[in-house]
């Protein structure tokens, strides 16, 4: 009896490439079928990501988007507002984590079952090495902008993530969110990944003490920010206390190497104040 494994590799690759475009989740699952499937699919994923980077190198006509599979599997991690239920959105005036920074992780569709959670969080899990924007050009520049509001005053922090040539993968983004550099820990209020944005001026960010995604003086977008993104994190004193043990193992740690977080790499403008405004 003939099965797919008996087909010539050229035909099998053509079939799997179609599956990659139509149903990425099924393609990833197919890696468990056999060693042959695992090897072929690994090569297909690698080739598609390389071709996507080359194809879109000089093309900014298409708006960057997160792959639909990641929206389903990791939705609340791209915008914490999406991790709240419909009832909570009606009840709460502000969709803030209020210190419960692991809520978006605990509410992932696969996180409720211990067995599924263990399968997804394995270091060798296939999803970890796949681009966040699979099928399009990868995100090659990521700014982390952190804004903290407190009665004593506001402050901002900035980091640039040192990305490999392959760009931002789903696994790296997942680890960044659980790193102690990217959030405010138990004082995290929210975060959002904004594609097609790139910080233009560190000095203006320091002056504003907040981030405004559509401010042309502060942010580049359009052609200047092609393949760029900003992870905007907001924090402040939490009104509720949360014990680490209540978070079912989701904890902020140093999973991402320290050297991945760089200070501002652009020009610094030094303003000298010489008088007073009328």
From TrEMBL:
- Taxonomically, the superkingdom here is Eukaryota
- Give the protein name, as stated in the record: Uncharacterized protein
The organism's taxonomy opens as:
Eukaryota, Fungi, Dikarya, Ascomycota, Pezizomycotina
């Amino acid at each position: 009896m003939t099965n797919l494994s008996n087909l010539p590799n050229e035909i099998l690759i053509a079939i799997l490439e179609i599956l990659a475009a139509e149903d990425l989740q099924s393609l990833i699952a197919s890696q468990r079928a056999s060693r042959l499937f695992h090897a072929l699919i690994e090569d297909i994923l690698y080739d598609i990501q390389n071709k996507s980077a080359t194809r879109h190198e000089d093309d900014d006509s298409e708006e960057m988007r997160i792959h639909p599979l990641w929206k389903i599997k990791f939705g609340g991690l791209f915008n914490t507002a999406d991790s709240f239920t419909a009832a909570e959105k009606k009840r709460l005036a502000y969709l803030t984590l209020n210190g419960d920074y692991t809520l978006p992780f605990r509410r992932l569709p696969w996180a409720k079952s211990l067995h599924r959670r263990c399968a997804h969080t394995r270091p060798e899990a296939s999803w970890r090495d796949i681009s966040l924007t699979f099928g399009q050009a990868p995100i090659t520049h990521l700014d982390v902008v952190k804004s903290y509001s407190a009665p004593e005053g506001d402050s901002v922090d900035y980091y640039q993530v040192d990305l490999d040539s392959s760009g931002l993968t789903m696994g790296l983004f997942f680890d960044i969110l659980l790193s102690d550099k990217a959030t405010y820990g138990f004082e995290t209020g929210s975060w959002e990944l904004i594609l097609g944005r790139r910080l233009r001026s560190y000095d203006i960010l320091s002056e504003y003490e907040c981030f405004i995604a559509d401010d042309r003086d502060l942010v580049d977008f359009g052609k200047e920010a092609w393949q760029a993104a900003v992870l905007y994190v907001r924090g402040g004193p939490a009104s509720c206390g949360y014990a680490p043990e209540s978070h079912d193992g989701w904890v902020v740690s140093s999973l991402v190497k320290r050297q991945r977080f760089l200070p501002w790499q652009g020009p610094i403008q030094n303003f000298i104040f010489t008088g007073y405004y009328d």
